[in-house]
């Protein structure tokens, strides 16, 4: 133990130790800086990554936290504590789907492992049930709680939890049974238990008389025991209200009004229930009844105003809000705000302004609009005071602003001074300038503009600014406490609000380089040309810069240039409203380009090192860049190589709808056109005299995606050796590397000041030393020597990858410091010849010094572009789920292997976090053909407060109470589809998996103008799945009507699903079609020839039955084991192989032990290649209770394997007229079938796979894609 601790300490860097010191003091931001420095020095130090992750977690930067902790786990995958922290990050990121397996199933796995050895511990079952409940896997929670109750039936809470889980499953009658049992043990007689019993009895579909009577008794008991909800006065509706069952509350309260017809609060509660169901008119009617009986409730008036506003009766709403605000003892600003908002909607602008002013004047400073004088009769004193107070102050402030234009506080003070002197118009201008320079959304600025406009008599415009006082000013019928509880949600909701409410500001340009790290690269080069172009004289220019110290001095006092910090309130406003957007990397994951906005992405270099999906350090690390490209209207490329990388390696060429042009790079104009005066200035700044040969060393960054690391000791040694050469060495690198170099105090090395633009620097140097950086391509145009110092090329190529050998580029490649120094010496003495002409022809032929002008004409003035990525093929976009190895995935892999690529482009959208970290899923993902373009989702779905509330309600209750609720949610998912895919052109959108609720709704709301055909697959008996396992399928069925085609995988499954679902969910009959599953016989046969049988040894004198499938309730292996047990008593030489994994594994293990079958029934787990075992076995048996069209049956038929299957719809459709025998779906049926096989009584046909395959593919083309 002591040696282990000592070893760990030796591995710790000085930076890590300093970070820990700050970490213990909870100084997260400072600690993070040290941990990041530690990572740069020790790239394999897992603790540094983990601690950096925790710091980000504490700072609510959940995406960064997730990345760091994931990296830590890559280095130490067995650390359970870290896995739990990763799961916490995932929850914060809303990456967990309620209805799918979560990213980290650590605790569940641990509990199942413990249950293997301690099954009789009911507390373990209890804890597992809690975990399953949180994941929404209620069907498994039910079985787990039943196990706990069997082990210890005396705990009443278990019955209540079991009843709740059954209730979630819609199994109300069974839920009532367990509630009753729980009440037998519960001596506390909690009212809520009796309510739960009554609710389950009332909700039971049988509606038998006894249940109705028992329900009433249970409700009456609940009311009699209630001490919290006042139900003795308001009836059972109070319980429904408490549980958020508003539709039930309406029915109950309506009935109770006949018992208590003059109870004001009862009508208020009834109104609130209608309110929560978005039935505004009914809500208003009952609120009015309540107020007619008792008007002394200001909040009731406020609620009346709200429902009137939602029903667009704005004047009535404004009056109700006003009455509420003025009659309330406490001043509530938002009530006056809502009155002002509604008055403005009713075109009563003066009244609106008055309400807004009442809302905020009580808490804001009121500025005098008249001058206080010493002597009213002394005009000289008045004049003196006026000049001193206003004119001189204004001059002082304007002078200060001319020296510090970016100081928003000065603009604010200027606005106050203008306002005090009644100069309303100039006050408005000054305040607005302050707004445009203040990164933090400040209410007072908007109030002051509104007030100034009001005083100037411009009431309507004043209302527009008063309305902006509140970011979340839209009338939402949902609680807003989530804004303070979840900062990530608040940020996204803020952007969403700006996106939905702000109009596009004409003649505004937003520039961003390297996520706001600098003002540089192509956007800066374009900006410099634009700012001097008279056509842009009336434009506002907004630069994203995170550190004001990095703003070039010459820009600080330009009044038409503004600076915003990335991720700030002001940044999100500009992103949602600027007409033109220019970026060289990517905007944040929440960004959505509006129609009417133009977005130019210039990228930032010709790639040598791998980009996009070729990057090896993180799964789909390029996802947000690809998403940004899909939003661009204009994509700039310097050459054909870069064009191919941007389109193909980011997997967007299929569906990209923007324009792309190869015009060269604007930033290289600055290198080519560098004036002699500017060159002299730069050389002075880097301490080079006129005779010096200036050598720039500019290494690329190394490390995980977006995080730079470098061997600092090697860098120091190399720089010291370079400094001894007969030249002047200057260094430029990642800002963190530059800081570390500066701390080394290396004599003779100059770090290039950040104010000097890299491309201007290239025009002032003589020799470039780099490695894998695109800076080399920019320097080619100077036709001066380039040295590639690739000392770690083997490691770098393995970790990151290169598109071509460095020796194919102009210049010399050096692999160690000796070669580097010799080569540099040769170039300095002109002993080595350098010629960049081939590199220029291939990569820089468009860089002629006038690229900026060409790009400006193209982007701003709509020069018609010739698209380079024309493709006449139809585009198919699939969603297939999280790549869980199962029949659905096999079916899809088979299908895409045969789709004609000469007619169709195939794209696939995936949730990276549902795949990465799950080895078996990732292995399946690697089977995807390289020609399929993969789009990875990133970021959280955007919601406003109300949309989030409705989405949570839908996830919890699986239905919404009104069409308006669905319309609101539809709009949110329409926006989400746009966020993920931009304005991509998609011909066929196919939800092949058919289960994931979020993706069902996303695809259902895909825009009809860009998506022609929406298809969803049904792989099973959906009604049975809904009732037995997945209650959320109710939501899926509700959205079927938005799809063009609902595809089952067999005719009989289609008929079953159509008959079960069409009438209840109002789905047109002709939307239901079927297509047989496509197979891949060549792969099955090839894999079956593998001699590896996963360690299992077959004996010649035995008969082997085999089954493959997930160990879950619908596959019902328990039934098969029971049948096999009976059969083995007659035929002892038989064995059963069960392949697969799943939640019933423990139950099956115990069943096998209980029946004494350990030597003859083998649970072999999930095997990546099961076909050798299937081929060697004698007979395949399927015991499922429901299936769509089981892929495993076809795989068995391809191998000419005898088949016995339960007679269910899916199996019948697969086997009828083909090979295989159907038996009764029971233990007896399986027993008889297997016995008949042993006795040779069964006949099996040969399966004509070629005919089947041809017909299945033809079905897909003609039925789905026609």
UniProtKB/TrEMBL annotation:
Report domain Glycosyl transferase family positions.
Answer: 1099-1240
Which keywords accompany this UniProt record?
Cell membrane, Membrane, Repeat, Teichoic acid biosynthesis, TPR repeat, Transferase
Q: What GO terms are given for molecular function? A: CDP-glycerol glycerophosphotransferase activity; glycosyltransferase activity
State the name under which the record lists this protein: Glycosyl transferase family 1 domain-containing protein
Which terms in the GO cellular component ontology are assigned? plasma membrane
Instruction: Report each TPR repeat as a residue range.
Output: 46-79, 156-189, 264-297
Family per record: Belongs to the CDP-glycerol glycerophosphotransferase family.
Q: Which SUPFAM superfamilies match?
A: TPR-like (SSF48452), UDP-Glycosyltransferase/glycogen phosphorylase (SSF53756)
Q: Enumerate the SMART domains for this protein.
A: TPR
Alphabetized InterPro entries for the sequence? Glycerophosphate_synth, Glyco_trans_1, TagF_C, TagF_N, Teichoic_Acid_Biosynth, TPR-like_helical_dom_sf, TPR_2, TPR_rpt
Q: According to Swiss-Prot or TrEMBL, what is its membrane topology?
A: Peripheral membrane protein
Picking any one GO biological process from the record gives: teichoic acid biosynthetic process
Query: Where in or outside the cell?
Result: Cell membrane
């Amino acid at each position: 133990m002591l040696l282990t601790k000592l070893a760990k300490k030796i591995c710790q860097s000085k930076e890590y130790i300093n970070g820990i010191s700050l970490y213990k003091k909870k100084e997260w931001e400072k600690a993070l800086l040290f941990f990041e420095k530690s990572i740069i020095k020790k790239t394999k130090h897992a603790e540094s990554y983990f601690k950096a992750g925790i710091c980000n977690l504490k700072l609510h930067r959940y995406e960064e936290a997730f990345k760091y902790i994931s990296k830590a786990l890559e280095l130490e995958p067995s650390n359970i504590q870290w896995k739990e922290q990763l799961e916490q990050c995932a929850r914060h990121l809303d990456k967990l789907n309620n209805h799918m397996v979560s990213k980290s199933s650590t605790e569940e796995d641990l509990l199942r492992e413990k249950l293997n050895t301690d099954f009789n511990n009911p507390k373990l079952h209890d804890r597992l049930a809690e975990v399953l409940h949180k994941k929404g896997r209620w069907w498994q929670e039910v079985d787990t709680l039943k196990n706990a109750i069997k082990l210890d039936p005396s705990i009443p809470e278990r019955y209540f939890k079991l009843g709740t889980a059954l209730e979630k499953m819609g199994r109300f009658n069974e839920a009532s049974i367990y509630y009753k049992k729980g009440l037998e043990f519960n001596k506390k007689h909690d009212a809520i238990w009796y309510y739960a019993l009554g609710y389950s009895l009332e909700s039971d579909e049988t509606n038998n008389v006894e249940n109705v009577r028992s329900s009433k008794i249970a409700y009456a008991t609940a009311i009699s025991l209630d001490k919290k909800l006042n139900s003795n006065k308001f009836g059972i509706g109070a319980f429904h209200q408490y549980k958020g069952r508003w539709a039930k509350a309406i029915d109950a309260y309506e009935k109770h009004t006949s018992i208590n017809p003059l109870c004001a609060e009862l009508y208020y509660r009834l109104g609130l229930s209608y309110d929560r169901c978005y039935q505004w008119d009914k809500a208003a009617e009952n609120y009015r009844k309540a107020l007619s009986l008792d008007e002394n409730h200001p909040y009731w008036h406020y609620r009346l105003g709200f429902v009137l506003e939602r029903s667009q009766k704005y004047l009535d709403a404004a009056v109700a809000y006003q009455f509420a605000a003025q009659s309330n003892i406490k001043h509530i600003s938002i009530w006056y705000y809502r009155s002002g908002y509604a008055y403005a909607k009713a075109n009563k602008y003066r009244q609106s302004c008055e309400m807004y002013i009442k809302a905020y004047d009580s808490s804001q400073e009121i500025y005098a609009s008249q001058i206080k004088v010493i002597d009213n009769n002394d005009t000289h004193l008045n004049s003196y005071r006026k000049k001193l107070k206003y004119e001189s102050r204004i001059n002082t402030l304007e002078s200060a602003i001319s020296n510090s234009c970016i100081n928003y506080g000065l603009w604010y003070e200027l606005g106050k001074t203008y306002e005090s002197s009644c100069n309303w118009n100039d006050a408005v201008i000054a305040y607005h300038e302050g707004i445009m320079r203040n990164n933090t959304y400040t209410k007072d600025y908007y109030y002051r503009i509104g007030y100034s406009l009001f005083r100037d008599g411009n009431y309507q415009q004043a209302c527009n600014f008063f309305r902006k006082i509140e970011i979340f000013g839209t009338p939402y019928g949902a609680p807003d406490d989530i804004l303070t509880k979840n900062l990530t949600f608040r940020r996204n909701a803020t952007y969403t609000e700006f996106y939905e409410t702000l109009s596009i500001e004409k003649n505004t340009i937003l520039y961003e380089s390297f996520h706001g790290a600098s003002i540089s690269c192509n956007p800066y080069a374009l900006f410099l040309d634009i700012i001097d172009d008279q056509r842009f004289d009336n434009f506002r220019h907004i630069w994203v810069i995170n550190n004001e110290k990095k703003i070039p001095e010459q820009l600080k006092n330009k009044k038409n240039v503004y600076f915003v910090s990335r991720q700030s309130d002001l940044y999100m406003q500009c992103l949602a409203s600027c007409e033109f957007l220019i970026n060289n990397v990517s905007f944040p994951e929440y960004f959505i380009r509006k129609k009417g906005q133009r977005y130019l992405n210039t990228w930032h270099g010709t790639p040598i090192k791998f980009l996009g999906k070729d990057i090896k350090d993180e799964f789909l690390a390029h996802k947000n860049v690809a998403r940004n490209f899909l939003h661009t209207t204009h994509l700039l490329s310097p050459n054909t190589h870069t064009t191919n990388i941007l389109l193909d390696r980011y997997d967007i060429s299929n569906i990209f709808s923007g324009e792309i042009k190869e015009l060269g790079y604007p930033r290289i104009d600055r290198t080519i056109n560098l004036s002699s005066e500017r060159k002299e200035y730069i050389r002075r700044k880097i301490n080079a005299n006129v005779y010096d040969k200036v050598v720039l060393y500019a290494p690329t960054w190394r490390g995980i995606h977006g995080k730079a690391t470098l061997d600092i000791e090697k860098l120091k040694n190399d720089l010291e050796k370079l400094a001894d050469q007969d030249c002047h060495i200057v260094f430029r690198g990642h800002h963190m590397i530059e800081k570390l170099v500066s701390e080394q105090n290396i004599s003779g090395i100059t770090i290039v000041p950040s104010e000097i633009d890299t491309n201007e620097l290239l025009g002032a140097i003589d020799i470039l030393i780099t490695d894998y950086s695109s800076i080399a391509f920019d320097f080619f145009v100077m036709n001066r020597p380039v040295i590639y110092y690739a000392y770690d090329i083997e490691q770098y190529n393995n970790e990151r990858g290169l598109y071509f050998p460095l020796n194919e580029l102009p210049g010399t490649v050096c692999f160690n410091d000796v070669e580097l120094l010799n080569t540099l010496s040769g170039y300095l003495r002109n002993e080595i010849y350098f010629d960049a002409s081939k590199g220029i022809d291939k990569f820089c032929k468009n860089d002629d010094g006038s690229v900026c002008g060409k790009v400006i004409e193209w982007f701003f003035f709509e020069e018609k572009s010739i698209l380079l990525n024309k493709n006449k093929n139809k585009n198919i976009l699939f969603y297939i789920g999280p790549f869980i190895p199962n029949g659905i995935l096999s079916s899809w892999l088979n299908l895409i292997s045969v789709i004609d690529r000469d007619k169709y482009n195939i794209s696939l959208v995936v949730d990276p976090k549902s795949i990465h970290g799950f080895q078996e899923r990732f292995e399946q993902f690697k089977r995807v053909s390289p020609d399929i373009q993969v789009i990875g989702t990133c970021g959280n779905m955007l919601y406003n407060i109300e949309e989030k509330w409705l989405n949570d309600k839908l996830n919890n209750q699986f239905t919404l109470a009104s069409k308006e609720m669905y319309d609101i949610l539809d709009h949110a998912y329409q926006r989400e589809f746009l966020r993920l895919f931009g304005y991509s052109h998609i011909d066929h959108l196919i939800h092949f998996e058919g289960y994931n609720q979020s993706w069902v709704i996303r695809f259902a709301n895909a825009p009809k103008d860009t998506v022609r055909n929406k298809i969803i697959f049904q792989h099973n008996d959906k009604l049975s799945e809904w009732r037995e396992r997945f209650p959320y399928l109710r939501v899926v069925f509700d959205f079927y009507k938005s799809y063009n085609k609902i595809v089952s995988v067999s005719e009989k499954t289609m008929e079953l699903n159509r008959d079960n679902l069409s009438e209840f969910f109002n789905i047109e009959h002709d939307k239901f079609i079927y297509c047989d599953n496509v197979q891949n016989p060549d792969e099955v046969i090839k894999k079956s020839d593998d001699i590896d049988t996963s360690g299992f040894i077959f004996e010649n004198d035995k008969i082997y039955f085999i089954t493959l499938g997930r160990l879950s309730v619908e596959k019902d292996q328990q039934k098969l084991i029971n049948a096999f047990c009976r059969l083995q008593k007659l035929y002892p030489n038989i064995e059963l192989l069960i392949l697969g994994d799943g939640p019933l594994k423990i139950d099956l293990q115990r069943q096998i032990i209980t029946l004494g079958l350990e030597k003859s029934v083998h649970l072999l787990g999930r095997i990546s290649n099961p076909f050798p075992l299937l081929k060697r076995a004698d007979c395949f048996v399927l015991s499922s209770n429901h299936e769509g069209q089981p892929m495993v049956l076809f795989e068995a038929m391809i191998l000419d394997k005898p088949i016995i299957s339960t007679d269910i719809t899916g199996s019948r459709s697969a086997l009828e007229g083909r090979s295989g025998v159907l038996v009764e779906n029971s233990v007896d049926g399986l027993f008889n079938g297997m016995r008949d096989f042993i006795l040779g009584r069964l006949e099996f046909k040969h399966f004509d796979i070629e005919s089947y395959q041809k017909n299945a593919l033809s079905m897909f083309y003609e039925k789905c894609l026609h």
